[in-house]
């Protein structure tokens, strides 16, 4: 938890237990959860935790640049932890979104063809290793 504690402090957020739990969950879950998914998970440990608290925390995290909101064309906002620059792979079959490491230099580009870059998002789609594996088992 220490590193996450430090990470929050660096971002100017005081590390409460629930904030740390949410952060830990975001770090461990590979599927880029929605606020409801986060609530479902965290309320197992803290049953009194309201959905409003989750929404407020996620708004704060978003403001402070700790998370970004992923646009995956699904209507519902999914949250992504910004520990390091990364790209995404979305499985068209199961809908899971994986973090993938790509050349970090790509995220440093500030100008491209004379245009100024404000935000860089790299997004792959296809069939994930799990769905791919399932197919093989069925053969
Ligand atoms: Zn899949
Ligand atoms: Zn991500």
Describe it for me?
This protein is α+β, with helices and mostly antiparallel strands and 139 residues long. It folds into two domains: 2-81, Orthogonal Bundle (Arc Repressor Mutant, subunit A), CATH 1.10.10; 87-138, Dna Ligase, domain 1. It is 37% helix and 18% strand. The protein is built from five helices and seven strands, in the order ααααβββββββα. Strands 4-3-7 form a three-stranded mixed sheet, with no helix packed on it. A two-stranded antiparallel ribbon has the order 1-2. Helix 3 packs across helix 4 (51-63). The protein binds zinc ion (2 copies). Residues 91, 93-94, 96, 128, 130-131 line the site of one zinc ion.
What is the secondary structure topology, with strand pairs?
Elements: H1 2-10, H2 17-28, H3 35-42, H4 51-63, E1 67-70, E2 78-81, E3 87-91, E4 97-100, E5 111-112, E6 115-116, E7 123-126, H5 129-138
Parallel strand pairs: 3-7
Antiparallel strand pairs: 1-2, 3-4, 5-6
Bound molecules: zinc ion (2 copies).
One zinc ion binds at residues 91, 93-94, 96, 128, 130-131.
